[in-house]
Specification:
- The chain is mainly α.
- It has a domain of about 80 residues: Winged helix-like DNA-binding domain superfamily/Winged helix DNA-binding domain (Arc Repressor Mutant, subunit A).
- The chain has seven helices and no strands.
- The protein is extended and about 55 Å long.
Length: about 120
Amino acid sequence: MRRELPYDPSDTHAWRNLHEATLPTAIEALMSGHEGPTVEQYEPLRERLLDAIDSLSERDRIIFDGCFIERLTIRECGERLCIPKSTVWNRRNSITKHLRNLLQDDPLVKEYLAR
């Protein structure tokens, strides 16, 4: 079954016009005047997240840092800590569940996630 395209793929001029019409240039995007949230507006949310992370035990904080901050694989994190990867997997899942439970009822977090 062939898929029909809204333009002739061999016609590079039509393809270029289709994509240029939908994507603003960098200058147009900057000149649009769209003001996004500032860093200062995210500061209270950042503080709530840091408080939740600080509530982790030392062992969980090490696993959190390895998995989420340093972006190590489960295997790499386990090798670094000399623990089985299944333990890292279980602790990581427990950590995310703990953080979710701490943050899910926070009004500021709810407001941010509703956007």
